[in-house]
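Notebook, p. 212. Picked up where the previous page left off. The plan for this session was modest: take the two constructs that came back from the sequencing core last week, fold each one, and keep the raw output in the notebook itself so nobody has to go hunting through shared drives later. Recording the first one now, exactly as returned: residue sequence, then the structure token string.
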Amino acid sequence: MITTETQEQPIEIQFSILKRGEPDSRGPFTEQDILAQLNAGEITSEDMVFYEGLGEWKPIGEVFEIQEQISHFVDDGQDKQKVAVAFREVSNVVGSEEDIFYIAVQAKAGLLGKTKQCVIVTDTHVFMLHEKRVGYELEAHLWKTVTNTLMRDEGRGLGTFSILLGGEKRVDVCHIPLKQVQRLFQLSQEIKQSID
């Protein structure tokens, strides 16, 4: 199920559909409504779909294929919409031979930031996704330039994940749920061992 988290309870994403050959869109629909219409043959995977945060109309098959691909990244309670954005942004810059292993999302923004950052681990890079006033910025670091990774328990179920670059620069992403920090650290250690 595609949902977005709020303080009280998850809110299900509402979709609009633009059927090929029709001038006006229809909706709102839930994910289950769309799947039911697909199964009944009322719409096809080539018809277009849109939801807030998607950016532009896309074929239904493409959107739900992406949603299926990212669903295994939210096992540790990540914000699914933030994961979808991170997945899209990283997929646009990595080659087909580079695999995305994990996406972690801050539980809350830092003192100076108003938006949550993401840490994305691939077999070649570690990315930090920063939301800007217009669009997103990816900070990319090749694993071979990362000299060490660190994790720190902040208390209250949150932690900080850090990478050291050449012993000169340290990049920290704080306020990540501890379970996600532990997974980032475990993956980073495995990747570093396979590279060294």
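Okay, moving on. Second construct, recorded in the same format:
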Amino acid sequence: MLIKKKLLLLLFALCSMVLTAQTDSTETPRIVVKVPLGELVVIDEVAVKFTEVLEDSRCPVNVECIWEGRLKAKVIVSEAGLNPQEKIVIFGKTRGNESANKILCEKTGLRIEAVKVTPYPQKAGQQMNYVLLVDRILPD
């Protein structure tokens, strides 16, 4: 009888774990788009051009740095019927009146947000073929 109670308790505990592990948690769909430096990419009728790296003080891999590095990039965003907008995105610490906002475009049914710039420096002074990664986020 004691063994049956223990088995029943164990079965109940296992069923509880399975049921709680299968909760419905839907995430907002995201589509990462690569925008190489100097190129224009159209995302849902929004043109995004990664025009310039203004600053790249990120510390190379396996190098000990004494300050927090960052990357500052210029991006031009154009929508049909609107004037192009220049956006400055900063990955890392912001200073003074700089903005940490990485949203490039936000309108009904779409948000385009800068995620990061690759590659990450491997050694000091390395020539980089920069690519801006942006998320195309489709709200629920």
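Notes on construct two before I forget. The two ends are 52 Å apart (CA to CA).
Flagging for discussion at group meeting.
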